[in-house]
Sequence to fold (392 residues):
Amino acid sequence: MSARGRPPGAKELLDEVHRIGREVVAPHAASVDQDARFPREAFAALKEARLLSAYLPVAFGGMGLGVGEIVGICEALGHYCGSTAMVYAMHHIQVACLVHHAAGAPYFQGVLRELADRQLLLASATTESGIGGDVRRSSCHVAPDGEGGFQLEKQAPVISYALDADAILVTARRAADAQPNDQVHVYVPRADTELVPISGWDTLGFRGTCSLGFTLKARGRLEQILPAPYADIHARTMHPTAHVSWGALWVGIASDAVNRARASVLAEARRTGAVPPTALRLAEVDVTLGTMRSGVRHMAAEYGELLEAGPGSFVADPGFPLRINNLKVATSKLLIEVVGGALMVTGIAGYRNDSAVSLGRHLRDAYGAELMVSNDRILGQSALMQVMRRDH
Fold:
């Protein structure tokens, strides 16, 4: 057993994820995409397999899986449905925030046990109207009522799967007179939340994430505020967990695209009795897929080692945020390259929506990867880090 109380059987668990993917996720992926609806069948199966608490320590009723194993699940789900994998990844980003930064607080110990018992689905509200995609600033604030409670109102242009979540973690300024970057992270059960839609979600890709905009109004107790400052939560957990888990599901999308391209090449080879010219392009995209997968797994392993070493390890390695940024930018670009290359292999069959090797959904999801936390914003952050970096 590791420090997280991890049980054996990770391979068997991943086999179960692939079974769910084949039997439940894949058959509904087209309708999830077409109707821009929440992948309810997939999450019913994931809850039944108790996979929504996979990252929780065993002491709280979870599986005690590590970063690398969660990354493996995200990649496996991405192979069958990008939206399902994205929701699962975003849920586990929030679970990780609770595990790493709130597990010592009595209130959140109850939350974590409830999460395992009921397989709660967690969403996140970090973006805000007037702030854009800068999750490290907030204009809304926590308003204490003087009796241990609070009220909160946030104009959120995006809250993915909010209407299907059991709770939402919301960023806000610590108080009315706090600076925009003096933020807290607040756990808000849906029962205590009013969501008024302000925008829809009719997009090219990742349609099943149902990322509508809302005015979020919530009330609760001050104990629902995570003990750690959001700056620490973001640096140690939100930022790295997001990029390794997103990168993993993008690898899953790319892997399925390559498999469809491979099926096309094999069919042509059987038909003609010779290796078709498209086999060369297939070999090229498989090299790029390998680069994607290696990068994600390397950074997931590095992040896992930092977590095992403790909070001080993040201070001791100031280059880590830059490497995480590089992973997101590189992997999102390579996804487009892989899916586009696979489309050239499949030809018109991959271009069709009614083909067994159709790549329309993969291609539309691929272009969302660069825009989801804009690469330009990330590169701007990295540019500043490059200027300030001092190598020894």
Remarks:
- Strands lie at 122-125, 143-144, 149-160, 167-173, 183-189, 193-199, 211-221.
- The two ends are 37 Å apart (CA to CA).
- The CA atoms of residues 126 and 212 lie 13 Å apart.
